[in-house]
Fold:
Amino acid sequence: MRRFLLAFPTVLLAACAGRTPSPETARVAPPAGSEAGAGETVSATDLTRSGKPNVWKFTRPGPDGKPVLVRRETDLNSDGRVDVWEWFDADGAVERQAVDLDFDGKPDAVLHFEKGLLVRKELSFGFDGKPHVTAHYEKGKLVRKEKDDNGDGKVDTWEYWEGGELDRVGVDTDGDGKVDRWEVRRGEGAPSPAAKADAAASRR
Structure:
C-alpha cells in the first residue's frame, strides 16, 4: 500500500499534465501555508477545470531576464491544500520533491535527486515530522535503508541491498547507534565479504 501511495502522486501529476490546461494562468498570491521568496513571482493554473487553481509555479528572473522555474506546488485532490512540493535547479531538473501521502497538509515522503537520479528518499510514518526510514540510492538503485523503529530519532536498523536483493541487516539492540547483530538475508549461505567486513568493523 505504501508503495502504491508513493507512486500515486506521480501518476496523477502526469495525468494532469496530459490534459488541456485552462487558458487562465494568472499571477496570484501563494497558496495557503506558502510564501514567495525574494524576487519570486507566483502564477496559478486550473489544470483540472475545477474552477479554482491547483498548480502554483514560483519563478524568478534568470540571467537573460526570462522567468526561471524555482518551485512548483500542486493540490492533487482539490481540497485547497498543497499535496506535492517540487524544487528545481538552475537547469530545470527536480532537486527535491515532498509528497503528502495522507492529505493532512504535511509531507510524508521527501525525495532528493541529483542530475535527475533519485539519491535519497525519506519517509515519515508518524506525526512528529521526522523521517523514520531513509533509503539511499546509487545510480538510481537502492543500496541502503536506515530505519528508526522506536521513534527516538536514531537509526537502529540498517539494511544493505546488492543487485536489487536484500543482502544483510544490521541491528542496534542497546541504543548506542552501533550495530550489535548482523543478519544475513541473501540466500542460506555464508555471509558475503561485505557482511564480514561490516561485522568486523562493528566489533572495533
Observations:
- Residues 1-8, 10-23 have pLDDT under 50 and may be disordered.
- The CA atoms of residues 26 and 43 lie 5 Å apart.
- Helices lie at 2-18, 193-202.
- The two ends are 40 Å apart (CA to CA).
